[in-house]
Amino acid sequence: MTCARSLLALALATVPIAAQAQRDSTPPATGLPRDVVREVVARFNATTALRATDALEIPATREVAGDVAVLNGPLTLAGHVTGHVVAINADVLLRPGARIDGDLLVVGGEVEGSEGATIGGKLRVYHAPLRFSQQGDQLVATPDVGGAEEQWWRRLERRRNANSNRLEVA
């Protein structure tokens, strides 16, 4: 019986390490990858970006020099953006002839019309919404409990407690 418990404890002790390695290299099932969260927050908080916290429309006659960040959009783009575009918890509608020189990053939304637009960088879409709060005009990501922002040792501790409770009951 003691040998069986030792083997079980050894097996359970190695599971969180393997799970951690996989979690760091792939997006969590319910949240966003940490690097994407950091990028989205940094782009929105940049003081040089054109920021909107509601619907934004950039007409075909307008050129925006620099980045565009939209929170809770939607964003309708027919003009030209010389930088990057980030849409947070917002959909993006690209009109024919729209041009983005940098990347288009959409978190918690969809993109429509990309085939008729020009995107100089990467087009990335994450369907999971960003959980956030605002402090003044700054965006602060709210970590998901059990999600990507939870520290690895807390997950390990939670698993060990759950497993030790199961062993005592059995």
Task: Explain the overall architecture.
- By secondary structure, this protein is of the alpha/beta class.
- The protein is built from three helices and 15 strands.
- Strands 1-4-7-10-13 form a five-stranded parallel beta sheet, covered by helices on one side. A four-stranded parallel beta sheet has the order 2-5-8-11, with no helix packed on it.
- The radius of gyration is 22 Å and the shape is elongated.
Helix content: 25-40%
Alpha-beta content class: alpha/beta
Runs with pLDDT <50, length 5+? 1-30, 145-150
How large is the share of residues in beta strands?
25-35%
- Strand order, main sheet: write it out: 1-4-7-10-13
What's the N-to-C terminus distance? Answer: 12 Å
What does the largest sheet look like?
Answer: 5 strands, parallel
Number of strands: 15
Rg value: 22 Å
Task: Provide mean pLDDT, rounded.
Answer: 79
User: Helices and strands, in N-to-C order?
Assistant: HHEEEEEEEEEEEEEEEH
Q: Please tell me what the overall shape is.
A: elongated
Count up the helices: 3
Topology:
Layout: H1 2-25, H2 34-45, E1 50-52, E2 56-58, E3 63-64, E4 68-71, E5 75-77, E6 80-81, E7 85-88, E8 92-94, E9 99-100, E10 104-107, E11 111-112, E12 118-119, E13 123-126, E14 132-135, E15 138-141, H3 152-169
Parallel strand pairs: 1-4, 2-5, 3-6, 4-7, 5-8, 6-9, 7-10, 8-11, 9-12, 10-13
Antiparallel strand pairs: 14-15
Helix pairs in contact: 1-3
Comma- or semicolon-separated keywords:
32% helix; disordered N terminus; four-stranded parallel β-sheet; alpha/beta; 170 residues; elongated
In short:
With 170 residues, the protein is an alpha/beta fold. It has helices at residues 2-25, 34-45, 152-169; strands at residues 50-52, 56-58, 63-64, 68-71, 75-77, 80-81, 85-88, 92-94, 99-100, 104-107, 111-112, 118-119, 123-126, 132-135, 138-141. 32% of the residues lie in helices and 27% in strands.
